[in-house]
Protein backbone atom coordinates (compact mmCIF):
# COMPACT_ATOMS: atom_id res chain seq x y z
CA UNK A 1 0.00 0.00 0.00
CA UNK A 2 1.40 3.39 -0.94
CA UNK A 3 2.53 5.76 1.79
CA UNK A 4 0.98 9.19 2.20
CA UNK A 5 3.03 11.74 0.28
CA UNK A 6 4.76 14.64 2.02
CA UNK A 7 3.51 13.57 5.42
CA UNK A 8 -0.10 14.29 4.45
CA UNK A 9 -1.86 12.23 7.12
CA UNK A 10 -5.62 11.82 7.59
CA UNK A 11 -7.13 14.33 10.01
CA UNK A 12 -8.66 13.36 13.34
CA UNK A 13 -12.10 12.84 11.81
CA UNK A 14 -10.92 10.65 8.94
CA UNK A 15 -8.29 8.50 10.62
CA UNK A 16 -9.01 4.85 9.74
CA UNK A 17 -11.03 3.39 12.61
CA UNK A 18 -10.42 -0.19 13.83
CA UNK A 19 -13.17 -2.67 13.02
CA UNK A 20 -13.49 -4.25 16.49
CA UNK A 21 -15.61 -7.09 15.06
CA UNK A 22 -14.39 -9.69 17.53
CA UNK A 23 -16.11 -12.89 18.57
CA UNK A 24 -16.68 -13.60 22.25
CA UNK A 25 -13.92 -16.23 22.13
CA UNK A 26 -11.42 -13.66 20.85
CA UNK A 27 -12.50 -11.14 23.49
CA UNK A 28 -11.93 -13.71 26.21
CA UNK A 29 -8.46 -14.49 24.90
CA UNK A 30 -7.54 -10.81 24.99
CA UNK A 31 -8.93 -10.57 28.52
CA UNK A 32 -6.40 -13.25 29.49
CA UNK A 33 -3.63 -11.17 27.91
CA UNK A 34 -4.73 -8.08 29.85
CA UNK A 35 -4.98 -9.94 33.16
CA UNK A 36 -2.10 -12.44 33.03
CA UNK A 37 0.68 -11.03 30.85
CA UNK A 38 3.42 -8.67 32.00
CA UNK A 39 4.23 -5.45 30.18
CA UNK A 40 6.96 -7.03 28.04
CA UNK A 41 4.61 -9.68 26.63
CA UNK A 42 1.80 -7.11 26.22
CA UNK A 43 4.10 -4.99 24.05
CA UNK A 44 3.43 -7.54 21.28
CA UNK A 45 -0.21 -6.42 21.19
CA UNK A 46 0.76 -2.76 21.37
CA UNK A 47 2.95 -3.20 18.30
CA UNK A 48 0.08 -4.90 16.48
CA UNK A 49 -2.18 -1.98 17.41
CA UNK A 50 0.30 0.45 15.87
CA UNK A 51 0.32 -1.49 12.62
CA UNK A 52 -3.47 -1.79 12.59
CA UNK A 53 -4.08 1.92 13.12
CA UNK A 54 -1.55 3.01 10.52
CA UNK A 55 -3.13 0.77 7.89
CA UNK A 56 -3.08 3.59 5.33
CA UNK A 57 0.70 2.97 5.15
CA UNK A 58 1.14 -0.54 6.65
CA UNK A 59 -0.67 -3.49 5.10
CA UNK A 60 -1.32 -5.94 7.95
CA UNK A 61 -4.85 -7.40 7.80
CA UNK A 62 -4.30 -9.55 10.92
CA UNK A 63 -3.02 -6.72 13.11
CA UNK A 64 -6.43 -5.88 14.60
CA UNK A 65 -7.00 -9.49 15.61
CA UNK A 66 -3.67 -9.64 17.44
CA UNK A 67 -3.91 -6.17 18.97
CA UNK A 68 -7.26 -6.58 20.69
CA UNK A 69 -9.90 -4.00 21.51
CA UNK A 70 -8.19 -2.42 24.54
CA UNK A 71 -4.97 -1.46 22.75
CA UNK A 72 -6.76 -0.46 19.55
CA UNK A 73 -9.14 1.90 21.36
CA UNK A 74 -6.38 3.40 23.50
CA UNK A 75 -4.08 4.17 20.58
CA UNK A 76 -6.95 5.35 18.39
CA UNK A 77 -7.93 7.97 20.98
CA UNK A 78 -4.31 9.14 21.28
CA UNK A 79 -4.01 9.47 17.50
CA UNK A 80 -7.26 11.44 17.22
CA UNK A 81 -6.11 13.80 19.97
CA UNK A 82 -2.72 14.27 18.29
CA UNK A 83 -4.29 15.07 14.93
CA UNK A 84 -6.85 17.42 16.50
CA UNK A 85 -4.01 19.33 18.18
CA UNK A 86 -1.77 19.22 15.07
CA UNK A 87 0.91 17.40 17.04
CA UNK A 88 4.31 17.23 15.33
CA UNK A 89 4.60 13.51 16.19
CA UNK A 90 1.47 11.39 15.89
CA UNK A 91 1.17 8.42 18.27
CA UNK A 92 2.27 5.18 16.66
CA UNK A 93 4.24 6.79 13.84
CA UNK A 94 7.49 5.28 15.07
CA UNK A 95 5.92 1.79 14.88
CA UNK A 96 4.70 2.46 11.36
CA UNK A 97 8.10 3.66 10.16
CA UNK A 98 9.91 0.83 11.91
CA UNK A 99 7.61 -1.74 10.28
CA UNK A 100 8.08 -0.25 6.82
CA UNK A 101 11.87 -0.07 7.25
CA UNK A 102 12.16 -3.69 8.38
CA UNK A 103 10.00 -4.95 5.53
CA UNK A 104 11.91 -2.97 2.93
CA UNK A 105 15.26 -4.25 4.20
CA UNK A 106 13.93 -7.81 4.59
CA UNK A 107 12.75 -7.90 0.99
CA UNK A 108 16.11 -6.57 -0.25
CA UNK A 109 18.02 -9.13 1.81
CA UNK A 110 15.90 -12.06 0.63
CA UNK A 111 16.23 -10.91 -2.97
CA UNK A 112 20.01 -10.69 -2.57
CA UNK A 113 19.93 -14.38 -1.62
CA UNK A 114 18.01 -15.22 -4.79
CA UNK A 115 14.63 -15.44 -3.04
CA UNK A 116 15.25 -18.51 -0.90
CA UNK A 117 16.46 -18.09 2.65
CA UNK A 118 15.72 -18.75 6.27
CA UNK A 119 14.13 -15.89 8.20
CA UNK A 120 14.30 -15.96 11.99
CA UNK A 121 12.22 -13.55 14.06
CA UNK A 122 13.46 -13.34 17.63
CA UNK A 123 10.81 -12.03 20.00
CA UNK A 124 8.34 -12.43 17.15
CA UNK A 125 5.32 -11.43 19.23
CA UNK A 126 2.26 -10.93 17.04
CA UNK A 127 4.21 -10.54 13.80
CA UNK A 128 2.29 -11.60 10.65
CA UNK A 129 4.88 -11.26 7.89
CA UNK A 130 4.79 -14.97 7.08
CA UNK A 131 1.13 -14.47 6.08
CA UNK A 132 1.44 -11.35 3.98
CA UNK A 133 4.88 -10.71 2.43
CA UNK A 134 5.29 -12.05 -1.10
CA UNK A 135 9.09 -11.92 -0.76
CA UNK A 136 8.84 -14.84 1.71
CA UNK A 137 7.25 -17.29 -0.75
CA UNK A 138 10.47 -19.31 -1.00
CA UNK A 139 11.53 -18.77 2.62
CA UNK A 140 11.38 -20.93 5.72
CA UNK A 141 10.28 -18.67 8.57
CA UNK A 142 10.94 -19.32 12.26
CA UNK A 143 9.24 -17.34 15.02
CA UNK A 144 10.66 -17.47 18.55
CA UNK A 145 8.99 -16.04 21.62
CA UNK A 146 7.77 -16.89 25.11
CA UNK A 147 5.64 -20.06 25.28
CA UNK A 148 2.60 -18.04 26.43
CA UNK A 149 2.89 -15.71 23.43
CA UNK A 150 3.31 -18.47 20.85
CA UNK A 151 0.43 -20.47 22.31
CA UNK A 152 -1.85 -17.43 22.42
CA UNK A 153 -0.98 -16.55 18.82
CA UNK A 154 -1.98 -20.04 17.65
CA UNK A 155 -5.19 -19.91 19.70
CA UNK A 156 -6.18 -16.48 18.35
CA UNK A 157 -5.65 -17.68 14.78
CA UNK A 158 -7.82 -20.76 15.38
CA UNK A 159 -10.54 -18.62 16.96
CA UNK A 160 -10.39 -16.24 13.99
CA UNK A 161 -10.76 -19.10 11.50
CA UNK A 162 -13.96 -20.14 13.23
CA UNK A 163 -15.46 -16.66 13.30
CA UNK A 164 -14.69 -15.00 9.95
CA UNK A 165 -16.17 -15.66 6.53
CA UNK A 166 -13.05 -14.91 4.47
CA UNK A 167 -10.13 -16.94 5.83
CA UNK A 168 -7.79 -16.05 2.93
CA UNK A 169 -5.82 -13.64 5.12
CA UNK A 170 -5.05 -16.57 7.43
CA UNK A 171 -3.35 -18.48 4.61
CA UNK A 172 0.42 -18.77 4.86
CA UNK A 173 2.42 -16.87 2.24
CA UNK A 174 5.85 -18.08 3.32
CA UNK A 175 7.12 -21.47 2.17
CA UNK A 176 6.91 -22.69 5.76
CA UNK A 177 6.41 -21.30 9.27
CA UNK A 178 7.46 -22.83 12.56
CA UNK A 179 6.76 -21.30 15.97
CA UNK A 180 9.26 -22.07 18.69
CA UNK A 181 8.32 -21.54 22.33
CA UNK A 182 11.58 -20.34 23.85
CA UNK A 183 13.00 -17.51 25.92
CA UNK A 184 16.03 -16.05 24.13
CA UNK A 185 17.46 -15.14 27.53
CA UNK A 186 18.02 -18.88 28.05
CA UNK A 187 21.09 -20.60 26.67
CA UNK A 188 19.23 -23.36 24.84
CA UNK A 189 17.09 -21.22 22.50
CA UNK A 190 19.41 -21.86 19.56
CA UNK A 191 19.33 -25.62 20.13
CA UNK A 192 15.53 -25.43 20.05
CA UNK A 193 15.72 -23.50 16.80
CA UNK A 194 17.91 -26.21 15.25
CA UNK A 195 15.62 -28.95 16.55
CA UNK A 196 12.79 -27.25 14.63
CA UNK A 197 14.60 -27.60 11.31
CA UNK A 198 16.86 -24.54 11.16
CA UNK A 199 19.96 -25.23 9.03
CA UNK A 200 23.03 -23.22 10.13
CA UNK A 201 24.63 -23.54 6.66
CA UNK A 202 21.68 -21.92 4.85
CA UNK A 203 21.52 -18.18 4.08
CA UNK A 204 19.65 -16.48 6.92
CA UNK A 205 18.03 -13.16 7.74
CA UNK A 206 17.70 -12.52 11.49
CA UNK A 207 15.10 -10.00 12.67
CA UNK A 208 15.40 -8.38 16.09
CA UNK A 209 12.57 -5.87 16.00
CA UNK A 210 11.54 -4.29 19.28
CA UNK A 211 13.34 -6.89 21.39
CA UNK A 212 17.08 -6.45 22.03
CA UNK A 213 16.75 -3.53 24.48
CA UNK A 214 14.50 -5.57 26.77
CA UNK A 215 17.39 -7.92 27.53
CA UNK A 216 20.07 -7.47 30.20
CA UNK A 217 23.39 -6.47 28.66
CA UNK A 218 25.10 -9.85 29.04
CA UNK A 219 22.18 -11.76 27.53
CA UNK A 220 21.76 -9.30 24.66
CA UNK A 221 25.45 -9.67 23.83
CA UNK A 222 25.15 -13.47 23.85
CA UNK A 223 22.24 -13.30 21.38
CA UNK A 224 24.20 -10.97 19.09
CA UNK A 225 27.30 -13.20 19.29
CA UNK A 226 25.24 -16.29 18.45
CA UNK A 227 23.94 -14.58 15.31
CA UNK A 228 27.34 -13.13 14.42
CA UNK A 229 28.93 -16.57 14.61
CA UNK A 230 26.94 -17.53 11.51
CA UNK A 231 28.84 -15.01 9.44
CA UNK A 232 31.68 -17.55 9.40
CA UNK A 233 29.32 -20.30 8.15
CA UNK A 234 27.01 -18.69 5.60
CA UNK A 235 25.68 -15.40 4.28
CA UNK A 236 24.01 -13.68 7.21
CA UNK A 237 21.95 -10.51 7.55
CA UNK A 238 20.85 -8.99 10.85
CA UNK A 239 18.07 -6.38 10.96
CA UNK A 240 17.54 -4.80 14.35
CA UNK A 241 16.60 -1.65 16.22
CA UNK A 242 18.87 -0.38 18.97
CA UNK A 243 18.28 2.22 21.66
CA UNK A 244 20.92 4.66 22.81
CA UNK A 245 21.58 5.00 26.54
CA UNK A 246 19.20 7.91 27.01
CA UNK A 247 16.30 5.94 25.52
CA UNK A 248 16.49 3.35 28.28
CA UNK A 249 15.43 6.06 30.74
CA UNK A 250 11.97 5.98 29.13
CA UNK A 251 11.31 2.78 31.09
CA UNK A 252 14.01 1.78 33.55
CA UNK A 253 11.90 -1.26 34.43
CA UNK A 254 11.74 -2.69 30.88
CA UNK A 255 14.70 -1.29 28.93
CA UNK A 256 18.20 -2.48 29.75
CA UNK A 257 20.50 -3.05 26.78
CA UNK A 258 21.68 -0.06 24.78
CA UNK A 259 24.34 0.83 22.26
CA UNK A 260 25.18 4.42 21.40
CA UNK A 261 27.27 3.24 18.43
CA UNK A 262 25.91 -0.07 17.05
CA UNK A 263 27.93 0.39 13.86
CA UNK A 264 31.08 0.15 16.01
CA UNK A 265 29.85 -2.69 18.22
CA UNK A 266 28.68 -5.17 15.60
CA UNK A 267 31.92 -5.39 13.57
CA UNK A 268 33.73 -6.43 16.78
CA UNK A 269 31.41 -9.46 16.93
CA UNK A 270 32.01 -10.63 13.36
CA UNK A 271 29.83 -8.56 11.03
CA UNK A 272 31.76 -7.10 8.11
CA UNK A 273 29.24 -4.54 6.87
CA UNK A 274 26.99 -2.38 9.08
CA UNK A 275 24.73 0.50 8.06
CA UNK A 276 22.71 2.64 10.48
CA UNK A 277 19.67 4.85 10.02
CA UNK A 278 17.79 7.10 12.39
CA UNK A 279 14.04 7.63 12.29
CA UNK A 280 13.51 10.41 9.76
CA UNK A 281 16.54 9.59 7.60
CA UNK A 282 15.83 9.31 3.86
CA UNK A 283 15.38 5.52 4.09
CA UNK A 284 13.39 5.77 7.34
CA UNK A 285 10.96 8.57 6.61
CA UNK A 286 8.24 7.33 4.22
CA UNK A 287 6.80 10.82 3.89
CA UNK A 288 5.67 10.86 7.52
CA UNK A 289 8.09 13.45 8.95
CA UNK A 290 7.51 16.62 6.97
CA UNK A 291 7.68 18.99 9.97
CA UNK A 292 11.28 20.26 10.41
CA UNK A 293 10.58 20.73 14.14
CA UNK A 294 9.45 17.13 14.51
CA UNK A 295 11.22 15.42 17.41
CA UNK A 296 13.07 13.04 15.11
CA UNK A 297 14.21 15.75 12.71
CA UNK A 298 15.49 17.83 15.63
CA UNK A 299 17.52 14.90 16.91
CA UNK A 300 18.97 14.12 13.49
CA UNK A 301 20.35 17.66 13.37
CA UNK A 302 22.44 17.10 16.49
CA UNK A 303 25.71 15.19 16.82
CA UNK A 304 24.98 11.75 18.24
CA UNK A 305 27.45 12.32 21.07
CA UNK A 306 25.16 14.96 22.63
CA UNK A 307 23.15 13.37 25.44
CA UNK A 308 20.71 16.20 26.21
CA UNK A 309 19.09 18.63 23.80
CA UNK A 310 20.71 22.09 24.03
CA UNK A 311 17.33 23.84 23.54
CA UNK A 312 15.48 22.39 26.50
CA UNK A 313 17.76 19.91 28.25
CA UNK A 314 15.55 16.90 27.46
CA UNK A 315 17.32 13.54 26.96
CA UNK A 316 18.22 12.79 23.34
CA UNK A 317 16.36 9.47 23.06
CA UNK A 318 17.36 7.85 19.78
CA UNK A 319 16.26 4.66 18.06
CA UNK A 320 18.71 3.30 15.53
CA UNK A 321 17.63 1.05 12.67
CA UNK A 322 20.57 -1.19 11.89
CA UNK A 323 21.42 -3.59 9.09
CA UNK A 324 24.48 -5.78 9.54
CA UNK A 325 25.75 -8.52 7.27
CA UNK A 326 28.62 -10.91 6.90
CA UNK A 327 29.78 -13.99 5.05
CA UNK A 328 32.64 -16.51 5.19
CA UNK A 329 34.26 -14.75 2.22
CA UNK A 330 34.26 -11.37 3.98
CA UNK A 331 35.64 -12.90 7.14
CA UNK A 332 38.49 -14.48 5.18
CA UNK A 333 39.31 -11.14 3.57
CA UNK A 334 39.20 -9.45 6.95
CA UNK A 335 41.54 -12.00 8.52
CA UNK A 336 43.97 -11.83 5.63
CA UNK A 337 43.92 -8.06 5.63
CA UNK A 338 44.74 -7.86 9.30
CA UNK A 339 47.51 -10.48 9.21
UniProtKB/TrEMBL annotation:
Keywords: Methyltransferase, Transferase. Signal peptide: none annotated. GO terms for biological process: methylation. One of its GO terms (molecular function) is methyltransferase activity. PANTHER family: LEUCINE CARBOXYL METHYLTRANSFERASE, S-ADENOSYL-L-METHIONINE-DEPENDENT METHYLTRANSFERASE YKTD-RELATED. Belongs to the UPF0677 family. NCBIfam families: mthyl_TIGR00027. This is Leucine carboxyl methyltransferase. It comes from Artemisia annua (Sweet wormwood).
Amino acid sequence: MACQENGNLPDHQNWPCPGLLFSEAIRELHATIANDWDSVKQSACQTAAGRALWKHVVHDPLAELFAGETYLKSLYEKIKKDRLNNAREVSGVILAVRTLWFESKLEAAVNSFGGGAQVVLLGAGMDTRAYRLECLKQCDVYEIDFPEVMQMKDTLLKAAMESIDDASQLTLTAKSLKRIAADIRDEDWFKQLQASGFIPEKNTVWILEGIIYYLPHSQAMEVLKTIANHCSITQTVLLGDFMNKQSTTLSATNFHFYSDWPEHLLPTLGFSDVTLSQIGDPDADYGLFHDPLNLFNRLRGLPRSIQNHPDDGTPCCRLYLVQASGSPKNQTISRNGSS
